[in-house]
Amino acid sequence: MGHNHEKHIAIILAAGKGTRFRSKKPKVIHNILGKPMIHYISLAARWSNPEKIIYVIGHEKQQVKKAINCLNCVYVEQEEQLGTGHAVAQTKPYWENFDGVVMILNGDLPLVEGETLKNAVKYMEAMLHFEGAPAEGGENYRNEKVAGVVLTTKVPNPLGYGRVIKDKNHRIIRIVEEKDATHEEQQIDEINTGIYLFYAPYLKQVIDRLENNNAQREYYLTDVIKLLNQMGKEVYALLVPDYTQFIGVNDRWNLSKVENILRMKYLQFWSYAGVTFHNPETVYIEFDVEFSPDVEIYQNVVLKGKTSIGEDSVIEENSVIKNSKIGRNVKILTGSVIENSVIEDNAVIGPYARIRDNTVIKQGVQIGNFVEVKKSVIGENTSAKHLTYIGDAEVGKDVNIGAGTITCNYDGFKKHKTVIKDRAFIGSDTMLVAPITVGEEAITGSGSVVTKDVPDKALAVERASLKIIENYAEKRKKKKND
After folding, report:
1. N or C, which end of the chain has less CB nearby within 10 Å?
2. Does 1 score more than 70 pLDDT?
3. Contact 158, 21 (CB under 8 A)
4. 3-state SS of the chain: helix, strand, coil percent to 5?
5. Residue 305 pLDDT more than 60?
6. pTM above the 0.70 mark?
7. Is residue 246 classed exposed, middle or buried when 0-12, 13-18 and 19+ CB atoms within 10 A define those classes?
């Protein structure tokens, strides 16, 4: 008959200050790969498909709420930080009549995988039920003794963690905090991950009976297990082999280590999806970055924000791309910086180019060394290969922009627009003083300062006439010797 799936609620504890962070802002909103730390455990919790998610918030609660950014979540305030047991007690009104499982998570565990939580919920369900005999219509009977499951793991160095003391059937006898552990207990390497699943009706009976007579004067959630055992109920340990999932973030050095582990996980994920990373240890990518297959990324590349890289594109070393969409078969050459822009298929950017502020580079465009493009649209197959500034401009297709060209878009008060139409030829070192339009197939002579619109097919030249003075060197010498 199968069992009716247990419903569950997730509680995420995010009220702490994180004193060891030495920070004005709460620990759980410090960023990991471009997202607040709390984002990752929230994602894992959602993966397990709970009825609802309750966040316990306290220190700087508005900032934390903003970082969590969840509309249909419940927020409960813990005004004084009196420990994990006290935090869970604050949420009781939301589950005291709930006939299901309450899963309790810590906001500072960004490496926990959704699949781990999903499996824990399934395991708890299996423990709570056994199938009825067919004669009785296959009803499910609840195993009255099972009260909860604690996720545990074995770590190479258990220093600082609560040790799990259990019997041979994996029933937990108790969990001892480091400060309260005997020398023998400190030798145990199976530790409490801080992730608990309790059957709500039993949790309700004990949550208000916690006491704070320990080294920290806090209400420990671990004491719930002791109280449940006294009621004759059983809490089981579920050992998860991969201990790296439970590396907590207590200080900024942990934050760096965790970010590194997560970054390598994402790089591995994308490499299995068809991306080549040369020297991946040096590549930084954030959570929202997406790749198509057959992309190649060289060392020291930084990819941030909502960035996507299309098929067959190559990003060379030391390039930085932020919140940008890169098309197919694009080459971003060494040391280029692209922000908030779109680069369409088959374009070549760099080396050492800078593209920013909602620029759109159309197909087949070439933007070369030390060229900066800001808030402009560059039409198909246009090229600006050297030492040029293009700002607030609309450039047509098949335009050639010579070295040293500048759109003079700012008059000291406001920005003005430059329009260069299809197939125009801009000679090297042209100053285009905006607002200005250069017509189709028009040409500007090199070294010109162009202050008026240039009609289609016209030539604009602005230069003082060239003087050549013969024998000037001799005259100079003579002057010096006199």
Report:
1. C
2. no
3. no
4. 25, 30, 45
5. yes
6. yes
7. buried
More confident: 110 or 135: 110
Residue 306 phi/psi, 5-degree rounding, is -85, 90
The secondary structure element, H or E, covering residue 89 is helix 84-90
Q: In what order do the strands lie in the sheet with 290-291?
A: 290-291, 308-309, 325-326, 342-343, 360-361, 377-378, 393-395, 418-420, 436-438
- Do strands 400-401 and 425-426 pair parallel, antiparallel, or not at all (unpaired)? parallel
For residues 364 and 285, give the distance between their C-alpha atoms in angstroms, rounded to a whole number. 26
Q: Show the tokens assigned to 411.
A: 């008059």
For 190, the enclosing helix (H) or strand (E) is strand 190-199
- pLDDT of 226 > 60? The answer is yes
Average pLDDT over residues 169-190: 93
Percent of the chain with pLDDT over 70: 96
Which pLDDT belongs to residue 135? 47
Q: What is the pLDDT of residue 5?
A: 54
Residue among 194, 211, 231 at smallest CA distance from 105: 194
Is residue 30 annotated as part of the catalytic site, yes or no?
A: no
Enumerate the β-bridge partners of residue 196: 104, 150
**Residue 32 phi, psi dihedral angles, 5° rounding:** -130, 120
CA separation for the pair 293, 272 (Å, rounded): 9
9-50 pLDDT, tens digit per residue, is 999 999 988 899 999 999 999 999 999 999 999 999 999 999
Task: Please choose, from the candidates 243, 272, 236, 255, the residue with its C-alpha nearest in 3D space to the C-alpha of residue 120.
Answer: 236
Q: What amino acid is encoded at 414 in this protein?
A: K
Task: Identify the active-site residue in 3, 170, 278, 386.
Answer: 386
Secondary structure class of 474 (helix, strand, coil): helix
Q: How far is 96 from 76, CA to CA, in rounded Å?
A: 15
